[in-house]
Amino acid sequence: MIAQGRFYKDLHQELVVQQILPTIYDGDDFPGYDKVKLSYQQLATIIHRGKRDWIAALENQKAVYLITDKSNGKLYVGLATSMSKMLLTRWSNYVANGHGGNKELVALVEEKGFDYVKENFQYTILENYNGKVDDKLVLQRESYWKEALQSRQFGYNSN
């Protein structure tokens, strides 16, 4: 142990700074809609720092998305349409308050607190659509996913 301590003590004198990054690392670039899987912290970073590639990708998209509670496996299937001002606005609501106004998620945040969401929620895109697609189709697809994933019976969907 003493020899190791001396090694580390002397090592700092030999370290050389190779590069100082011009900007603070703020997460990965947008990977494509089929690869979006974000923790609450990752989503908050994207929104708060205004990551241009992510903002451009999400702001005009309609979508069916999934929120997974990693602590218990419960799911919430949601949708973003022109009525909810598209996916970026919808997900920004979750970053702001943890529940986005959804009945079951409001109750969860009231019971367990906002930090619970920050520690346990993951956000995924199941299907995405451009802004020209009829909202009715997105609503039908949301209903399909709620049935397929049984998020009404075993998750956080109440409707």
Automatic annotation (TrEMBL):
Stretches assigned to the GIY-YIG domain: 60-158
This protein's source sits in the domain of life called Bacteria
Name any one Pfam family assigned in the record: GIY-YIG
Which named protein is this? GIY-YIG nuclease family protein
> What organism, scientifically named, is this protein from?
Macrococcoides canis
